[in-house]
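Figure S4 source data
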Amino acid sequence: MNRREAGGGRGLRRVAAATGGFVACVLVAALIAALVGSWGRDLRRAGAVAALLLAAAAFQLAGRRGYRVGELLAALVAAELLFAGVIAWYAGAPRVDRFFLSWCLGGNLYLAVPWLAGAALGAWLARRRSSRSPSGG
């Protein structure tokens, strides 16, 4: 078994860990919103907290932990599938209609955009740091 074949499980574990981190950020944001009394139909405060947590988590994973952007994108796809399932469960039927698209677009402004921004900024910082280090080439 060569190195590439042996490393396949590592990438899947990293995607699973990043997806777990994504879900944990959303759950912590929901818990904070519930504790401070801003839970209800207006989810903007919980969304803002989730956005900050997700951007920080993606930045940490890409910039400090050395996760590849592809792994973070795969985690985002997995989280998006979970999010679509939650919307479909809430709607009562798994169909793509105006309600689904509205919630999907609105939710992604608070979930996907900060995750992608944090991942991009973290990857940029890691690349910049490695190019400046004497051993980074």
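Figure S5 source data
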Amino acid sequence: MIDGVEIENTVALNSCKGCMGTDRGSWASGSATALGKDLMYCARHESEGILSAGAGLNGDLMASFMRDMNAMIYSIDSIEKLAEKFASAYSSYGHHTPAKTFIDTLFSLKDKLCRAHTQYTFSLLHSTTQLSEGTNA
């Protein structure tokens, strides 16, 4: 519990030490560990793959894919609701290989990317330049 708020995930439980936010890279995890920070990935950069992952889905399905993926990254703030949305996404879009690959990646990064897992992580991330992502904590 932090400031009276029940914390459901391990990233948030350690958020008092701050985080390092960055693009995914082979150096990221080791750098965060060396700095004693939690690691969080840049949601904007990760969400850029949504459009290409949904390419080939027909009209309404593409629109719902984009809506669902953005919600999973930016809007859903409950771990249980996120888990339900992942199950629904696999059911709705799992037949389309690029969409399934995106969902698989999002699932593997959820604790460092999705709002449901990162909402209580303290960060001073700057949103206008790539340079600032790895240096703020």
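Residues 59-75 form the longest helix (17 residues). Residues 126-137 have pLDDT under 50 and may be disordered.
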